[in-house]
Amino acid sequence: MQMRFSKSTLSSGLKVITEELKGFPTVSLGFWINIGSRDEAPHEAGLTHFIEHMLFKGTSRRSALEIAKEMDRLGGYSNAFTAKEQTCFHAKVLPEDVPRILDLFTDILFRSRFDPEDLAREKQVILQEIKMVEDTPEELVHELFGAFLWEDAPLGRSILGEWDVVSRFTKDDLLSYFKRYYGPPNLYLVAAGNIYHERLCEIAEKYTENLRFCVAPKRYPPRARRGKKAYFRDLEQVHFVLGVPTPGARDEARYAALYLNTLLGGNMSSRLFQEIRERRGLAYSVYSYLSLYEDTGVFAIYAAVEKEKLRETLSVIAQEIRFLSEGKIEEEEQRAAFDHLKSALLLSSDSLETRMSRLARNEILYGRYIPFEETLARLNSLTPEEVSSFTQKLFHKKPALVALGPVEEEDLLFFDELFSD
To answer: Which residues are catalytic?
Structure first.
């Protein structure tokens, strides 16, 4: 496949990053803003997500209906999302439609009206979205875990915000936050697929020549809390998350973290899936996951079990973590984990959206393009001893445990026996 990576900075300060792939008939393109929910003050919690919604509600040139119709007319896929550290507006279109999608995205990004009537209506939509999470225990427990682990830090707050904060937002609140952050140096235009870099820069220059410079976010690594917390709910199961902080996405330890996640609970052949679900039948849903941010991260394990099976399930988790910490990793097991990671990485390269997202995150986090081959070589060089050492460092202190369901604090006293400092 013919591929060319290019990066330019326009006169406005906008960075344009492309991966030209001539074998594809389409282009995946996104405007990335290096601003997320962790950049909000307590009285702003939920503003980033709220702004994402409001940018589709009308501009000085287009109504909300016209925006929707134009996106449908392009025939591709378009969407937006808000995360802890970034916001993205992205689309997949035909190469000849790149000027039209740029015109549309720059219109909603820089000429949105933030009409008070639209704001009041969308506020109700977001408040219902918050309620939906609160009514979904398998989602809510992750929000509760983040809040407990990171204490009062912004990283622990819900991306959606809290009911009492969101319900007070005004147009001035949105505009103040928007003007502070939504522009260079926080703004990136990223594209992958059948695109010519020079042509994209030429088009983007036309639509972004008057961008104003904004302030960059100031982020500080939060302190993590250990121990246990129970949230009583009259449910059939206990939903729990157990986890620890990890080094961030810029740390070389991220490769060992990927291995740990794969070995412990990242797929169907992982230790926890096999022992907890397949051999013992303790849970239908059990998995581990890794969330990495620029300066910190979290490795966590989720499961939902009957209250009577909670202790046995956590005992199995403690045992498998101990085995990994003690170096009980067969070389064949690690090779299988590498094969899984390799396949997942290379299979994802078939997706332009994934390549575009990877391109953006590499630029934001590392300031450079990282070839797939470089990532695979680093993963392949890791030894079982390094993975064990990393696991030992992560769990040398007691992890955090949050349980949601028919449990009280006294029902979790055994946790201190399973995990100690």
So the answer is: 52
What are the residue ranges spanned by the domains of the chain?
Answer: 3-208, 227-418
Domains 3-208 and 227-418 fall in the same CATH topology: yes
Distances (CA, A) of 130 to 35, 40, 140, 350: 21, 17, 10, 34
Of 184, 221, 224, the closest CA to residue 394 belongs to 224
Q: Rounded to whole angstroms, how far apart are CA atoms 114 and 170? A: 10
> Which CATH number applies to 3-208?
3.30.830.10
For helices 254-264 and 372-380, angle between their N-to-C axes, nearest 10 degrees: 70
Give per-residue pLDDT as tens, 166-201: 999 999 999 999 999 999 999 999 999 999 999 999
Q: Are 163 and 127 in contact (CB under 8 A)?
A: yes
Pairing of strands 227-232, 400-405: parallel
Q: Say if CB 275 and CB 320 are below 8 A apart.
A: yes
Instruction: Give the distance between the most distant pair of CA atoms in the chain.
Output: 64
pTM: 0.94
- CATH superfamily to which 227-418 belongs: Metalloenzyme, LuxS/M16 peptidase-like (3.30.830.10)
Neighbour tally for 220: CB within 10 Å = 11
Q: Is 309 within 8 Å of 316 (Cβ atoms)? A: no
Does the pLDDT of residue 384 top 90, yes or no?
Answer: yes
pLDDT in tens, 348-380: 999 999 999 999 999 999 999 999 999 999 999
User: Which residues make beta-bridge pairs with 79?
Assistant: 90
d(CA 28, CA 189): 11
Token duo for residue 95: 């190469």
Q: Which of 297, 314, 395 is nearest to 85 (CA)?
A: 297
Identify the three-state secondary structure at position 87.
Answer: strand
Q: What is the DSSP letter of 157?
A: S
Q: CA-CA distance, 337 to 348, in Å (whole number)?
A: 17
Tokens of 274: 């096999």
Which string of DSSP letters, residue by residue, matches 274-296?
IIIIIIT---S-EEEEEEE-SS-
Distance CA 126, CA 50 (A): 8
Instruction: Give 267's DSSP letter.
Output: S
Residue 366 structure tokens: 């590392």
